Each structure stands twice: as C-alpha cells, then as structure tokens.
Amino acid sequence: MPEVIKNVACPYCGACCDDLEVTVEDGKILEVKNACIIGTEIYHHASREGRVGSPRMRQPDGTYKDITYDEAIDYTARMLIKAKKPLIYGFGSTNCEGQAAAGRVAEEAGAVLDNCASICHGSSFLAIFDTGYPSCTLGEVKNRADVVIYWGSNPAHAHPRHMSRYGVFPRGFFTNKGHRGRKVICVDPRYTDTARCADYFLQVKQGHDYDLFDAFRMVMHGYADDVPEIVAGVPKEKILEVCDIIKKGRYVHIFFGMGLCHSDGRNHNIDIAINLVRDINEVTKCTIMAMRGHYNIAGPGVVWSWQFGFPYCIDLSKGSHAHMNPGETSSVDLANRGEVDAFINIGTDAGAHFPIRAFEKLGSHIPMVTIDPSVNMAATVSDVHIPVAIVGVETGGICYRMDNVPIQYRAVVPPYNGILTDEELFNRILNRMLELKEQGIECDGKWEYAKAIPSLIPVKLEPEA
Amino acid sequence: MAMSTMYPKYSTKMENDTVIMEQRLLKKVSHLVLNTTKCTGCGICSEVCPKEAIVLGLVGAVRRGAVKDEAAISVDPAKCSYCGVCTILCPFDALEVRVDGEPSLPIKEQEGFPEYDFTAEIDENKCVRCTTCSEACPRDAIVRDIPVYEGEVADGAKRQTALDAETTLVVDKEKCNVCGICASLCPALKIKRIPFTAEKVGSAGEVVWDKSLCDACQVCATACPEHAIAVERVVKEGSKLAGKVTIDKETCVTCSWCEKVCPEEAVTIKKFFDGEIVFNADKCPGGCSTCVDICPCNAIYLPSPVPALQLKKDSIEPTIAVNADLCILCGACVNACPSEDVITIRRSGIHVKGPETDLFKSIAAKLCIPRSSKIREDTFGQVELKPLE
Q1: Is B286 in Cβ contact with A180 (below 8 Å)?
Q2: Which of B285, B305, B319 sits opposite A250 (nearest CB)?
Q3: Burial (CB count <10 Å: 0-12, 13-18, 19+), residue B330
Q4: Is the pLDDT confidence value at A460 over 50?
Q5: PANTHER family in the record, alphabetically (chain B) (predicted)?
Q6: Could you give the angle at which helices A96-109 and A422-438 cross, rounded to 10 degrees?
Q7: What residues in chain B have their Cβ under 8 A from chain A's Cβ atoms?
Q8: What is the DSSP-derived secondary structure letter of residue B212?
Q9: Cα–Cα distance, A137 to B107 (Å, whole number)
Q10: A42-53: per-residue pLDDT in tens?
Q11: How many CB atoms lie within 10 A of CB A109?
Q12: Residues B336-385: pLDDT tens digits?
C-alpha cells in the first residue's frame, strides 16, 4: 500500500520547503507533491537504478573496485593522520549532526575545515563581520514586507518556491493582498524570470552594483540632487522612483545573491548593501538576507561557530586553537597555493564547481576521498568514494534555512543498501583515527595509497596540426 | 452536399479588434460585430439575448490581455437571430448588427424596443474648461474642444491668447534712452534704431511693441534701467478659455467620475441602472485584484495599508472595496471574480425611453435578478453566476 508522508523538508536549496508530501511504497518513492522540479528530482533520484551501494576504491588501472566500509574508513583515517594539512571541504548538503561529527574529526586531524560558503556567501560573512547583519526570519517577510528587493539574485531559477512561499505572492498577516500589496524590485544585469515578476527592474551594469548602492545611499542621506544622470547604467529618475517606493514602504526587505558575492568588490558589495539597510532604517523598517544556496549551508556556519567560534575557513592545524582568515585559509586559496596534502570532498562537488586550476591541484596530486550518495565529478577522480545516506530522503536531522531557522528534516525511505549516514561515517572515522594513533601511526606527510594519476590531470588540448 | 446544409451558412471570424458572427442566406447577409476593445465582459448582452446565444468566457484573462485570441464573450452565430437587443442594451457600444454590410436595427426603427435613458451633461456656463473631468473619465468620454496651448505642447497656441483682456504698453519717450535691453529680453518688443553715425554720436530711435506677442509679464518694465515702460492689463470679467467641454453620450457609461471631481459642480449625470453593489471583503482571497483591473468605471480599489503607528490586529485594511457612487452596476466584476459571495449586485430599476414592450419587460426582469459569483461552474470555461433572492 502506498503511504503518503507529509511535512517532508526538501534537501535542495536554502528555501528549505518543509511542506512536501511524498508517496512511498516498499522503500521506493512514487510521487512528490508541492516540491519544485529540482526538489522532485532529488527524491526520484534516490529511487533510481545505479545508486552506489558500497564504498569504492580506485585501482591502478583507473577502474573502481568495491571495498568494505571498514577499509574505506581505515584509508580515510590514515590519510587524515598522515597528512600534514588535510582539507575537509563541502557540507552544504548534509545535516548539522554530520557537520558536528566532521568538526570533531577535523579537530583530531588538525585539518582545515571549510564549507561551500567560501565560494558562495563567504563574502557576505566578511561583510557581516565588518558591518553587521540586520536581518529577520522569512515569516517576517511573508507577514510584513510590502517592498521586496531581489538584488543580484534570481529566485525564479535558484530558489524556485521562494517567491511563492516568502517573498512575493503569499498573503501574510499584515500583507493580506499578496503580491498586489507588495512592490517588488529586481536589480540585475539580465532581464531574468524574477525581473518578469517584479514591478520595477533596474538593469544595472554588471559589476557596478557598488556605484548603484552608493547612489541609493546618497538619496537616503538627502543628496539626491548630486546623483549623476546615469549611475551603473540606471537612469537617475528610476533610482529616485525606487528610493521613493522604499521610503514609503512599511517594511522593506532586501534579498541578495551571487550578483553581489561573485562580482567585483565581493564583500564590499554586501557591506554597502548592509549600510543601505541601516540608512533605510532611519526612515522605515528594513532588513536584509543572503539567499543562501544549499538547504543546510547555513548549518556549518552555526554549528562550527558553536564548536570553534568561526563559521568557515577554519584552520585547526595548531591543534590547540582555531584560526580563520579567508584568503589564507579558504579552500580555493589553499588549493591554488598547493598548501594542502589531502582532501575530503563531503556533501558537495568540488570537481564540478571549483575553478579547474584549483581542482587539478586537489584531484590529481594529493589523495582524495569523496563522501557523497552519488557519483559526481569529484567522485570520479577520488581515490576512495564512500556513499552515504541522502539527508531529507534516507535520513533526518536538523538543517538551517537561509534565515538560520532550524528545520527538522525527516527520512521517507531507509538508506539504500544499508549505507551509513554522514554522522555515523565521521564518528567511525574519528574512532579509527584514535585507534590508529594508539597503534603509533603518526603524521609524516606520507600516505600508503596515494597515487598520482597523470592521465587525469586536466590539461589544455594542443590544437590539432 | 445536401441542399439543406448549404443555407443558411454560419461562421465566426476574428479580425484584429473585431469578432464577426455571420448568417448568410441566399441573398441576405446578417452580421453581429463585436468590438473587443470596447467589450468589458459585463455580460449584459448575455443576460438580455432573447435567443440565449451569448455566453461569457475568460473575462478577467481576456480583459487583462493574458489571453490574446479570445473575446470576453462568444456568440453562437446559428442561435443568434440578429435582432439587435444586445446592441441596444450594451452600455459600452461594443456590439453592432449589420444587414448586408449596413448598420441596421429594425427592432428600434419599428419601435419594438426602448433604449437607455440617462443624463450626461455639462453646464457650459459653470464649466471653466479645466482638465479634471477629462483626466478622471475612465472611458475617454469627455470631449474637450479647447485650443491646445503651449503649456501642453511646445507649438501650441500662445498662452496670452487664452485671456480676454486689454493690454497696454506705454514707453515714456522722455526717459527712454534706446538702450535695447527690453527688446533683447522679449519677442514682443523691437527697437527701431536710428543708425549710428559719426556725425551725431548717440543712441536714438523708438521701441516698437507687438501687442499679439505681449504677456503683460512686466519683465520689460522691471528691467528697464530708466523706468520708462509701463504695462497694464485689464482682464474682462468672467473671462474663460475658448471652446467647450461636452460628454460623448455614445461613450459615456454614467459612472459619474466627472460629476464627482468637477470643481465647479457643472456636471449632471443620471445613471441608467438603479440598485446596489456590496463587497464582502472577508471572503476575498486577496492578491487577485481581477475586479480592480477590469472594472470599466475604476470604481473598485485596494484599500491603502494603515500606517504602522495605527496598526493593530483589528485594524488591518480590507483586501478590496468599491466606491458604490462610481459603480454603474454593469456586472463585469461579478463575472470576473474567481471567488464566491464577495461581490453582490442588485439592480432595482432600468431607466429607458421608448416603448416598454413585453419583450423588454421580461428582459428587464432578468437584468434585475440579484447575483454573486460562483466558484465551481457546471460548464467549464463559461461564466455562470449564482442567482440570489
């Protein structure tokens, strides 16, 4: 008999929709309701043929051979002990329990512990350290916001149900007219599908958001007359019109995304945005929120802040106290400078999403373990690939939404082939490390299984003669 | 093909802004032509059709432009008798019956049916030709036959021509030293200078004034270093702009916006329907606003949010409201509303002139059935209302 499981939370984006209804039968997922197309695929993917059912190790000929969990855990524990500066990176897609267990492993290994923030909203963190984070929960936006700004973000494609659950369309307590009572402003170089939903679209010149924020702040400070006729490609009259909407708003909220974090200025785009929020708060109420990407990328920030006091780029190599300095202790920088000698890719795909020059130094030169439910690009060049249960599908746990609200995730089917969860795996790695250390295995910068695989080094192809 | 199926021939075709229903007999061709830009989806045609040939479709979507290749109403060309009752009673002048290509309303010509009787007048004596009514009119029914002045378009009529006034400009020749400042400032002034000559060195001549260009603005008088210029203007009592403002009765739907906004109380509107409209905002889901978008009279509005200072749980503004004074009880809102019991319309009387025939009386009775909208209709894609008592 098919069973309908309600209040299921989706393990894809930072919107963390927790209103899914999943129909299961005999441990298979039949139907997913309420999720967007991306979320739906996550669930169907879990029940598809071809899942990896046990750990695998790459052989000298490049093929993979199944090994036991014990062997895989032993390899990983040895690698972590023997390496001088291992990097454990990822964590956007696992639960807080897994992130905490990984924190304990990293501490024991003296590793650098980093999460996807360092290539995503890490610049936002830097700005937050500088200027603060006047934010709110998404319910506040839904129930109060009458001016919603999507600045450099495209929820229509990246957070598909964000506009219908929080930002634009829902009818909240004080926002009973839904989108007809809200003014939606989109700032983007492209006329995105989000812009199509907006009342005002400011087509900013790519990379010139700082100029535009500056103009907004001038208007807020009463220097509108001194704003040039065109700022960052946006006509002055449009800036004044939008500033007028903002000033008249009862509750203004700004959502920002990679348009600010990934373009020129990085953290300074964010800190001026936060300062604009502060300015607007002189006139009306205003809050700002980072459109966090993965469903639990806010999780490591919170968990590791409890454990170590730092949200990301945590260097634990001193053994006694943690150190954080993005730019020095961030994954891509460490990789580019060749400063790590072992790599664990967990709950992410550095193979697909790191710059190729950074990843070739990780994937081809040092031993690498990928911990992931599925085969991804990182797994295809790893020495060992350890499958784990999918959070939100095969195991539950706590995940932090983009507004740092913890959502209790739940399992809808048992883990495929009895595979471990991230938490179980990291706990076992920690135990094995303690055992090995007792046996006298020490850090010597050498590892037993590391094999460089020259044939897989990404190289520029020579043009054919 | 068997003869019986050849005539009459029926067809419907959509061309740009019109939908043409056709009945073709051997010699005679009848057309019912719908102007889709004028049609508001009010549904009066559908209620009054003696043959029940007209149904209402996607009123909200069509009027908002979300559906392009459909009209708000659809007429079955075979059921239609081309009688013209719909044409007579359409408040928006969107329907026309043509016989053999010519507009034709035999039912009216033979006094078989009355027409709307309403008042839409502007008292010319009270009207000051301001722009308020023409700006406010939701149907563009105000004919503002006034010259266009330079304030509106750069090459419009000169503003001084708007006044019925007598202007005089006097130059004190004793004081004037022909310095030329006045002429350099104003196109209405020129100086006719006696050419400079070494024989008699000095500035001499006279100031020439073109009355038709003078604004009586006093700039010349003020700028004159010798205080030699005096400008005076006497405006005639009761002077007002030339021309006339009238209401096009074909286009007017008696919403009375013009009457309500006229600063001089110069407009008289008497509506063609009596009755009441009631909005029950508690049942409105919010976030829809279809009624606001499609109301032909702009009578429906989203109430403004209460400022935070006054905001309490019980002071949250309603989701929707109507200004009943501006409503003409056309019914478009009820047809478009996707909810139930939010809007109730009760027509209690229809003002007509002409013979009140039995046919008219039966139609009037149908128009006066109070109604609200319905969530689940029996026929998909077709408007069906909920009759009330």
Answers
A1: yes
A2: B305
A3: buried
A4: no
A5: POLYFERREDOXIN PROTEIN FWDF, PTHR43193
A6: 20
A7: 285-289, 302, 305, 307-308, 311, 316-317, 319
A8: G
A9: 67
A10: 999 998 888 999
A11: 28
A12: 999 999 999 999 999 999 999 999 999 999 999 999 999 988 888 889 99
